[in-house]
Amino acid sequence: MLQATNAPIIRTDTLKISIDSTLLPSLGEAAVTEAQAEAIPPIMTTEDRVQLLMRAGINKSADWTEAIHYDIRKPNFVVIHHTAQHSINQTIRTFQLQHTKVSAHYVIGKDGRVVQMLNDYLRSWHAGKSKWGNITDMNSVSLGIELDNNGREPFAEAQIQSLLVLLDSLKTKYQIPFTNFIGHADIAPTRKDDPSLFFPWKRLADRGFGVWYDESNLAAPPVTFNEVDALRIIGYDVTNLRAAIIAFKRKFIVTDVSEVLTDYDRRVLFNLYRRYF
What we know:
Its EC number is 3.5.1.28. This is N-acetylmuramoyl-L-alanine amidase. By secondary structure, this protein is α/β, with parallel strands linked by helices. It has helices at residues 27-39, 46-56, 88-94, 157-174, 184-187, 201-206, 227-234, 241-252, 263-276; strands at 77-82, 106-108, 114-116, 142-147, 181-183. The chain folds into 2 domains: 76-212, Peptidoglycan recognition protein-like (Lysozyme-like), CATH 3.40.80.10; 214-277, no CATH class. 34% of the residues lie in helices and 8% in strands. It has a 5-stranded mixed β-sheet with strand order 3-2-4-1-5, sandwiched between helices. Strand 2 and strand 3 form a beta hairpin. Helix 7 crosses helix 9. 27% of the residues are buried.
């Protein structure tokens, strides 16, 4: 008895093409086509750009032989933003326009869709002029995550769920300390307010992404407690103290974002300060 086989069926195309009926371009047309092809710039992948940058960093006046032990940029912070735009597509387009000069590693839509726009090891342009602790070039040490949100509305649950999954992956992969998950307003208090008052910082901190205070143990600080030093030790740039206080209260107090530290605010600040010092 014959055995059934799974061999593919091969079909041949018997359609004949008449050479006489085929329109061939003239020499002049062919020359124009070649010139147009040469004018189209080559499309470079991210890997191509990295290789180009690595070659550009080689000292041409020195002998060259490659070592085999090295690292590339390793992110040590995550900075969270809201887009202040109207859709994830608008934000993606913004990051692809030449004149905007801004980008981020990830964009997360309201429906939880995650779009990666840069390799984690590359330096994106998301932080701008900023400072955290002694670091004045946050772009070089951080990953930027943009949440599709106009800044005047609560964040969608699907969006926060996707963010938590992404943060867990990044924290594990790069061994990012829990204290190093911060917001754009933290590092640029005079310019930015994102990710807005609606962002659930406590919920993130409960999962190990960021710092929160112990609401059940808000002891009064000692008389010698220095609020300015506490803000500075946490990481805030206190050059503009008013902006630093507002950024601190926007994140941890929420219900009052004035520039004055109340007794309750000082208790919260002292509790947080003890986590760092």
